[in-house]
Specification:
Layout: H1 3-11, H2 13-25, H3 30-33, E1 38-41, H4 68-78, E2 86-89, H5 100-109, E3 114-118, H6 125-133, E4 139-143, H7 148-155, H8 160-177, E5 184-191, H9 199-209, E6 212-217, H10 223-235, H11 245-248, H12 252-259, H13 267-272, H14 281-291, H15 301-304, E7 305-308, E8 313-315, E9 326-327, H16 333-337, H17 340-352, H18 362-366
Parallel strand pairs: 1-2, 1-7, 2-3, 3-4, 4-5, 5-6
Antiparallel strand pairs: 7-8, 8-9
Helix pairs in contact: 1-2, 4-5, 6-8
The structure holds iron/sulfur cluster (2 copies).
Length: about 375
């Protein structure tokens, strides 16, 4: 928990009590508690952008999407856990769903703290005003990878950065006029060789706007690492989708070659970066050399989190979404969370300590 959250917690103790509870519980003997503290929800894998580093538009695996009433049942069930888990929506672009605001509003109706990741293109003033007036969102994360030119270039959309800054202005305006303290606004910045040189000015812009920045590293999967992972998954019978798993990841080698992830990194830019990044300079170098970040402990995610895919599949692993512990159309969330398949995943991870792809997964450096 950072200092900004702590100080908000002091000023708004009731609102931030669940966040504080979740942070404290994540430090308790979490393997035995088995309470979901965060549930990732992917309402759609469709996206209105096609950033070249992202495989979502190449995947046809999750073309089916849960309906509003199915989300209602899920949120009602999640509201029976203590503390109420946070629900974190990502995608694809969540707002491509015409009923997205209703889905978010339904989660709030069941008192679940709500966060959403968006590229911001589909938001408009009326939607934003409504969500602020109703206090639907606790946090909103805009995907911003750099200053205007770099951000638009990486995301392949001219005018995207300006649109996001405009959205930030609208959110601030309505927070003030409705006297609301939420949503907290974040830039979600993916670090790669392309934006190391603009992290300082991006942080300065974020400071000026009163926005916090959440950094992750561009995730890329070297072929050998992927093969070792698939071998381990099949050894323990942990791959469950009848899908061409190889196809479901974009061609990593070609992407790396085209974008110079290994070869075009300006290490001086990294040394000059004043921003506090999740990994040290040495570990960042190691990450971009293709070996991933050093693993200091076993990932806690499968004991504290789950992810709901668009078709209702629930997976315990953010990095390997092709393992299905169950589907919400067949079973309740609680049955899946405490069920045999979810537990098998936890048991194998405990035994192996880590999986081959863990070093390139944001969950490996996300918990401090
Ligand atoms: S905006 Fe996000 S989900 Fe959409 S293509 Fe880009 S990285 Fe992928
Ligand atoms: S760190 Fe490993 S176990 Fe944890 S979510 Fe990522 S891939 Fe899965």
């Amino acid at each position: 928990m950072d200092m900004a959250t702590v100080s908000k917690g002091i000023r708004h103790p009731v609102r931030y009590l669940p966040s504080i509870q979740r942070v404290l519980m994540a430090r308790l003997p979490w393997r035995w508690l088995r309470t979901p503290l965060e549930v990732g929800i992917v309402p759609t894998r469709r996206c209105n952008l096609s950033c070249e580093m992202c495989p979502v538009n190449q995947q046809s695996l999750f073309s089916e999407e849960l309906k509003l009433d199915e989300y209602g049942r899920l949120f009602r069930e999640l509201s029976t856990f203590r503390p109420n888990p946070k629900v974190l929506f990502w995608g694809g672009e969540p707002f491509l769903r015409k009923d997205m605001v209703e889905i978010l509003s339904l989660a709030k109706k069941y008192h679940l703290p709500v966060s959403v990741y968006t590229n911001g293109l589909l938001l408009n003033e009326k939607m934003i005003e409504g969500m602020i007036a109703e206090e639907i969102l606790n946090d909103i994360y805009f995907s911003v990878d750099g200053t205007e030119e770099v951000c638009d270039q990486i995301r392949g959309k001219k005018g995207l950065y300006k649109k996001i800054i405009e959205n930030v202005g609208i959110i601030c305006k309505y927070k003030e006029s409705y006297e609301k303290s939420i949503p907290d606004i974040f830039f979600a910045c993916t670090i790669s060789s392309r934006n190391l040189g603009v992290l300082n000015p991006l942080a300065e812009s974020a400071n000026r706007l009163g926005v916090r920045t959440h950094y992750i590293y561009l995730s890329f999967l070297p072929e050998k690492m992927w093969q070792r992972h698939l071998n381990m998954m099949s050894k323990y019978d942990l791959e469950d989708l009848n899908a061409d798993l190889q196809h479901s990841h974009h061609n990593p080698e070609k992407f790396l070659e085209n974008n110079g992830i290994f070869t075009k990194i300006d290490w001086e830019q990294l040394e000059e970066c004043k921003v506090k990044l999740p990994l040290s300079v040495e570990d960042t170098k190691r990450y971009f050399s293709g070996s991933g970040c050093p693993l200091r402990r076993t990932c806690r995610s499968p004991w504290l989190e789950a992810t709901v895919m668009p078709n209702g599949d629930i997976t315990p692993c953010n990095g390997f979404i092709y393992y299905r512990a169950g589907n919400l159309r067949d079973k309740s969330f609680r049955d899946i969370w405490f069920g045999e398949k979810f537990n098998r995943f936890r048991t194998v991870l405990s035994k192996e300590k880590s999986f081959p792809i863990c070093p390139i997964c944001c969950k490996a450096y996300g918990y401090k």
